[in-house]
């Protein structure tokens, strides 16, 4: 389950995602949590077992599962209450998009990996501390140094000019941290998923296209579309309740045209169709095979298991994960069960969705992104 903030007397607590314990995050007249600069602690393949038994690993799967449950039956453009901190973070992403507009790709012999991304990354990195610090309330300003490490890491690697599921994971962990320290509350899950995460994915795609970024790893082997994975998990969870299409229909052109702005999963398929050529079954075989699964709920839970195996169990990905005071490698208590979301069972009530959502702004010289 996702974190939820609550006040008990004069103390502020945040439940962790598996409801295993409470995290003290500060109180009037009491010392606050001491935030730290996170470090990479998974140094070799032998450390992977420590990772798989860590609180961070369990909390991560709990967070992904809780968000999947919360997003059931939603639509991307529906009206949802957007808390001030989510709105501020959306403006932060707007600022980073503006930096990309101000940092166009340069002419170079190499087709992939435009070196202008390095300039954009330096600008983003130099502004990140101020941007994140301005978003946080005064009581959580000290968390800036810890949060910034995850935030800076979620847009790609400036040396290799690539992007992969490890960078996506950094953003998921950034969101987790905000829940765990109480900046986000449980009731904010839908706004975080539909508005903030979706905005991040759109920005990541624009960076990928504008700077011709390469897939991290072995040609995107740890993702579903060369770059992303989690949007497919949460996107299929959206469809687990009141879905307007069957799984076999998501590759149909008419379904893509009709629902690409409303459904996260279909938006992912639309992006693939824009950047790849040829038959879908050839360039996206794993997704093609998913279309044969009869229920969206089974697709989502199956993708979570696949994510565990193909992303979270891969040392080349996890060696780059950061751990600090919020997300730790501390071992979970014996007998702790991994979360298992039950999708398609009890739909939550959501506001009705508007008919359409404006197209995202384009970078100058882009190709439709």
Which key terms come to mind for this protein?
3-stranded antiparallel β-sheet, disordered N terminus, mainly alpha, two-stranded antiparallel sheet, 369 residues, disordered C terminus
Word description of this protein:
With 369 residues, the protein is mainly alpha-helical. It is 44% helix and 6% strand. The protein contains 14 helices and seven strands. The strands form three sheets. A three-stranded antiparallel β-sheet has the order 1-2-3, with no helix packed on it. It has a two-stranded antiparallel sheet with strand order 4-7. Helix 3 (84-101) packs parallel to helix 7. The radius of gyration is 20 Å and the shape is globular. It starts with a strand and ends in a 46-residue tail after the last strand.
Please give a quick description of this structure.
This protein is mainly α and 369 residues long.
Number of strands: 7
Structural class: mainly alpha
Low-pLDDT windows of residues: 1-31, 347-369
| Strand order in the sheet with the most strands | 1-2-3
Query: What spatial form do the alpha-carbon principal axes imply?
Result: globular
Order of helices and strands: EEEEHHHHHEHHEHHHHHHHE
Calculate the terminal CA-CA distance, rounded to whole Å. Answer: 34 Å
Report mean pLDDT, rounded to a whole number: 84
Number of helices: 14
> Could you tell me the radius of gyration in angstroms?
20 Å
Q: Determine the fraction of residues in helical runs and give it as a percent range.
A: 40-55%
Give the oligomer, counting copies of the same chain as homo and different chains as hetero. single chain
Largest sheet: 3 strands, antiparallel
DSSP strand (E) fraction? 5-15%
């Amino acid at each position: 389950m996702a974190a939820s903030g609550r006040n008990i007397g004069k103390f502020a607590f945040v439940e962790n995602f598996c409801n295993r314990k409470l995290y003290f995050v500060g109180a009037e007249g009491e010392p606050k949590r001491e935030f730290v600069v996170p470090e990479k602690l998974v140094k070799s393949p032998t450390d992977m077992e420590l990772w798989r038994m860590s609180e961070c690993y369990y909390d991560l799967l709990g967070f992904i599962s809780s968000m999947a449950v919360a997003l059931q039956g939603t639509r991307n453009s529906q009206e949802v209450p957007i808390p001030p901190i989510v709105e501020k973070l959306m403006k932060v992403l707007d600022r980073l998009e503006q930096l990309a507009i101000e940092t166009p790709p340069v002419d170079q012999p190499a087709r992939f990996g435009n070196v202008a991304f390095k300039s954009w990354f330096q600008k983003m990195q130099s502004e990140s501390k101020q941007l994140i610090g301005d978003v946080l309330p005064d009581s959580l300003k000290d968390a800036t140094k810890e949060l910034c490490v995850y935030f800076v890491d979620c847009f790609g690697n400036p040396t290799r000019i690539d992007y992969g599921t490890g960078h996506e994971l950094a953003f998921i962990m950034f969101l987790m941290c905000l829940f765990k320290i109480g900046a986000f509350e449980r009731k904010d899950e839908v706004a975080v998923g539909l508005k903030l995460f979706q905005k991040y994915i759109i920005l990541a795609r624009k960076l990928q296209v504008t700077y011709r970024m390469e897939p991290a790893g072995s040609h995107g082997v740890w993702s579903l579309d060369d770059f992303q994975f989690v949007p497919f998990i949460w996107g299929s969870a959206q469809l687990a309740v009141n879905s307007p299409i069957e799984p076999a229909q998501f590759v149909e052109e008419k379904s893509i045209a009709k629902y690409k702005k409303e459904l996260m999963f279909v938006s992912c398929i639309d992006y693939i169709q824009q950047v790849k050529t040829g038959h879908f079954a050839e360039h996206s075989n794993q997704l093609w095979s998913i279309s044969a699964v009869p229920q969206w709920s089974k697709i989502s839970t199956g993708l979570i298991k696949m994510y565990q195996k193909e992303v979270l169990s891969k040392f080349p990905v996890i060696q780059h994960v950061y751990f600090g005071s919020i997300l730790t490698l501390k071992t979970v208590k014996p007998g702790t069960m991994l979360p298992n979301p039950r999708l398609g069972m009890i739909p939550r009530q959501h506001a009705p969705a508007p008919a359409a959502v404006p197209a995202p702004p384009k970078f100058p010289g882009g190709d439709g992104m």
